[in-house]
Amino acid sequence: MSAPASEIFARQSNDSSFPDLWDELVWRGLIHVSTNEDELRALLAGPPITYYCGFDPTAPSLHLGNFVQLLLMRRLQLAGHKPLGLVGGSTGLIGDPRPTAERTLNTPEVVAEWVGYLQGQVSKFLSFEGENAARLVNNLDWTAPMSAIDFLRDIGKYFRVGTMLKKDAVSTRLNSDEGISYTEFSYQILQGLDFRQLYMEYGCVLQTGGSDQWGNLTSGVDLIKRSLGESAHAIGTPLITNSDGRKFGKSEGNAIWLDENLTSPYAIYQFWLNTDDADVIDRLKVFTFLTRAQIDALAQAVETEPFKREAQRTLAYEVTTLIHGEQATLAAIAAAAALFGQGDLAALDATTLASAIAALPQAEASATTSVVQLLVDSGLVASLGEGRRAIAQGGVYLNNVKVTDDSDELGASLLHDRFAVLRRGKKTLAGITVAARD
Question: How many degrees, rounded to 5, is the angle at CA 304 between CA 302 and CA 306?
């Protein structure tokens, strides 16, 4: 269960050791590309401004890439600025261009449902109290009443096709076998319209987003300039990649979601705990509110005592707590310890235990399945004979209790009537699940 906002916000502050917010954002690696740097530095150091970031409901949850934007928004809010969290009820019906193929278009009913999910997630990371309280907006509110003729006459006339064709996302698709539809080609106009609308209604002068969205970000800046004669700004954060160049946040093609029902707190914690030494300091800068001094100390620990993995444990604790709260984080830590015999498996709640087991090699069983058969079914041994030898040598544990008889059955060892953890040696684990009873 997620922690209350007050608990999470109490852990958040910008680092006063930096002369201004811009310098801290640069040090943390959050600025990949921007409009005029000097103007942005002065803007962020001055009186409160209104800024926004958009999130399209193309899935039922935000993911770690979106989390970068939420943390940047929160840093700007902590500096006194006023955030607008836009969830794209209209742009979510289209989707921004993918590099290789057209998006699958979801029904309006599905998109509307996902809008609600994403609004709830955005609300966890921004404060809706005080003089610079956040506000949620939905671009369907201003695009739905607009006719196609109005859209083309009032907005489309400010866009030049030649410029639109040069945008990276568009040019990549034009040079592919798939090409690009007018639907996705028009996305940058809609995003530009959003910025213009928020500028007129709220005085919004800054948009943030991923650097892969730079063409869409600048379309709004250009539209405000052309149609209103006013200046606005954009910041593009870097795409986060691992030191080996692989895209960050993907594991065998699966995104790391912020929704605990899609990616559990245990899985989130383990994801960060497994960060490479080469990446962990950069991750601490981007994804935590630790100070420069704290991160520098952890960098030193990586250099001198990497085997302790202090930086990784700190990263996992801090980020899991930001997303799910301290109680869920401590439960994840307890689950990890219990799996390896350093805690009480029976003390884990069913949800946490199920999440922990889901990350292990799996075997399904019945209550009468023998432990030696489970060793084979789970892949911990190659044969029944090897399983018997492993038990005879004292190296097999069921729920952290040593198995001494190769005829033992799963039986009463089940946790929450459904689960068990089988271990061979100190570190080789498998999860056992029995079908739920009717």
Answer: 45
